[in-house]
Amino acid sequence: MRTAKRTAAREPAAQLPVARIAVDVPLAHLDRPFDYLLAEEQAAVAVPGCRVRVRFAGRLVSGYLLDRAQASEHGGRLAYVERIVSPEPVLAPEIATLARAAADRWAGTFADVVRLAVPPRHAAAEAVATPQARPTPAPPDLTSLDDYDGGAQFIRALVNGESPRAALTALPGDWPGTVAAAATTTLASGRGVVVVVPDHRDVARVASKLGENAIALTADLGPAERYRRFLAVRRGAARCVVGTRAAVWAPVADLGLIVVWDDGDDLHAEPRAPYCHARDVAVLRAHHARAGLLLAGFARSVEGESLVQRGWLRSLEPATAARARALPAVRASGDDEDLARDPVARAARLPSLAWQAARDALAAGAPVLVQVPRRGYVVSLACAGCRAPARCNRCAGPLTRANAGATPACRWCGHNAADWACPYCAATATRAAVVGAARTAEELGRAFPGVTVRTSGGDTVLPDVPAKPALVVATPGAEPSVPGGYGAALLLDGWVLLARADLRAAEEALRRWLGAAALVRPGPEGGRVVVVAPGELRAVQALVRWRPEWLAARELDERSALRLPPAVRMAALTGTPGAIADLLATAQLPEVTETLGPVPSGGEQERMLVRVPRRDGNALAAALKAALAVRSARKADEAVKVELDPVVVI
DNA sequence: TCAATCCGTATC
DNA sequence: ATACGGATTGAC
After folding, report:
1. Which helix (H) or strand (E) holds A47?
2. Residue A569 or A335, more confident
3. Does any strand C atom come closer than 7 Å to the Cβ of A639?
């Protein structure tokens, strides 16, 4: 009775009374717009993109108004929009279209994607007026892309208002300046820019180059500040956004360029459903918006190389002269024969090449970067001869030493392994399999008496260090910058990175090495890099020759041969065996679909991989989405996690 | 014959 | 999810 009376009291708006609403419900089978009526008094504020509350299946839910129409296709009665939460059109039409495309591409729901794209509302921030947009900046007074073959053309295209697309492998030096040059050029052409970088330190670096022109969007801002800056962008007051992965959705109008720095970094992969990757969203958005795209980094991801080989991106590589000017001298030092004769350097696991490079750099008054694979102290032991993990011969648990000099013992069963011998090479000596930054710092301190040793990694990341003699021990990604560059970099225990049982091990190892090596001063100024890993390995060769494109191309060839992504489109299905079987039985997968697995995935869970040729990728996503919808309508109790193009495949 | 409960279906 | 309708069951 009451509802009937209330409904009767409302009058539909005279103009465009039908509102198409995307409701925020998590169910795959409800992932489509629903029509509602707008009351006359709501008509003025009900703008496309605004937040609403509607009654849906009896309860109040949030939603976004997508657009308005004069009439509805829906046969039944329409309910009224309960409330216009705010007239702020937070969901820009362009972003709504992009979110729909992304949801389809990753077999997810519109609601899930929009949750990534639009930050939660903060009413107080909304109430504050946004300052007016700044005038278009003067053309850039920054380093340009002249050091790269085709770089000048790329910049010229941006100046001319065109939308060039490229993958750039950056030289050591001022990468934030390079990114800022492309951004400022685009701004000067009267268009907007989005720059996406892995973490907030990188945001600060790029933002400082862009100064007043840019607005920084990171997840670590509080809700109020985050929403305030988002609104500044949406209201058109900021035309250039620099941020972490969610910034790829920033509603910059009239987008001219998207830059993604270091797209191989895992931080670009969204951990929330539907697990989209900022690089791939950038590709999608550049396509939709007809914007330019720059994938730049010291490394080249296999995905970036794939886009190059498909002709979608142009490859921008350093010109020969610029290489000679900017690259440090890189050498590999593979085996223990090469270990320094000095007993203290030996104890610190330093090959003579590395020791020499460090001594020379320190003598020249420069700091030395020492990259170690992982944080932590001694973890477990490996065979000193062949480096196979040392395992207990009773229970196969990992061997460890309680303290330096103690005999090895099993960490699982406690068995004393003093008589251990390697089952592969019969060696009886063990060595630390992974030596963390702290232990390395200790050992280096002894090898270089009187030299300051600093560590950066884990909880204590040093942003920068002074240009004075010091040993700077850092884990990958936590390398401090230094004015003028390091005199040398030692990349220790390279084999640990390469030994990861992961499809991306080689690519990832090179990416991390390049990240450290790029902080070293140029070869002509004495800059040297020594990587402690077997010189015959592809990733090591790619580093020594500084040819990341070459490794990416080789890795891509291999993935094509093995039919692995990005040569094919793949989905990982994780859940109980029954749930996965049900999903696969329900899904009308393309004829060509291959299934791999299952493999155990912890607990009761299994993981199954399905793959199709690239051209069938959309059909695969659509089929999986449809099957998820059927299962969600059926109230299937056990969920299956569906990830398209998972970052970690094996 | 009626109520309590179950199952399936739609959600505007 | 949640709400609703129709079928189904069980006790009088």
Report:
1. none
2. A569
3. no
Cβ proximity of A149 and A316 under 8 Å: yes
Sheet architecture: strand order including A34-37:
A34-37, A18-23, A59-69, A51-56, A81-86
Q: Is the shortest CB-to-strand distance from A584 to strand C under 7 Å?
A: no
| Identity of the residue numbered A396 | A
- Spell out the domains of chain A, with CATH numbers in brackets: 2-89 (3.40.1440), 148-323 (3.40.50.300), 328-376+436-545 (3.40.50.300), 563-644 (3.30.70)
Q: Of all protein residues, which has its CA closest to the C1' atom of B9?
A: A633
Q: How far is CA A192 from the centre of its chain?
A: 22
Task: Please state, in angstroms and rounded to a whole number, the distance separating the CA atoms of residues A24 and A623.
Answer: 22
pLDDT tens, A127-147?
Answer: 999 887 666 555 555 568 999
Which residues does A129 contact at the CB level (< 8 Å), separation at least 6?
A: none
Judged against a pLDDT cut of 50, whether residue A527 lies above it is answered with yes
pTM confidence score: 0.90
Instruction: Check residue A378 and give its pLDDT.
Output: 43
Closest CA to B11 C1' — which residue? A57
Q: Is A27 exposed, middle or buried (0-12, 13-18, 19+ CB in 10 A)?
A: middle
- The upper half-sphere exposure of residue A517, i.e. CA atoms within 13 Å in the direction of its Cβ, equals 34
Closest C-alpha among A157, A153, A156, A201 to residue A175: A201
Taking the stretch 53-82 of protein chain A, residues with Cβ within 7 Å of any atom in nucleic acid chain C are: 57-59
Residue A8 CA, nucleotide B4 C1', distance (Å): 35
**Cβ contacts of residue A398 below 8 Å, gap of 6+?**
A379, A380, A381, A389, A390, A391, A392, A410, A411, A412
Task: Measuring from the CA of residue A35 to each C1' atom, give the nucleotide at the shortest distance.
Answer: B12
Instruction: Report how far residue A383's alpha carbon sits from residue A425's, in angstroms, rounded to the nearest whole number.
Output: 9
Q: Six-digit token pair at A514?
A: 């390049």
Contact, A369 vs A479, CB < 8 A?
yes
Helical pair A175-188 and A200-210, crossing angle rounded to 10 deg: 50
* Residues A568 and A614 sit within 8 Å (Cβ to Cβ): yes
Q: Are A467 and A483 in contact (CB under 8 A)?
A: yes
CA–CA gap between residue A548 and residue A473 (Å, rounded): 24
Could you tell me if A21 and A34 are in contact, meaning their C-beta atoms sit under 8 angstroms apart? yes
| CA-closest candidate to residue A505, choices A398, A373, A387 | A373
Q: If you ran DSSP here, which 8-state letter would residue A643 be given?
A: E
Q: Please report, rounded to whole angstroms, the spatial distance between the CA atom of protein residue A250 and the C1' atom of nucleotide C10.
A: 61
pLDDT in tens, A81-125: 999 999 999 999 999 999 999 999 999 999 999 999 999 999 999
- Find residues whose C-beta atom lies within 7 angstroms of strand B: A 27, 29-30, 34-37, 54-58, 72, 74, 76-79, 633-635
Which range (A51-65, A122-136, A443-457, A620-634) has the least confidence? A122-136
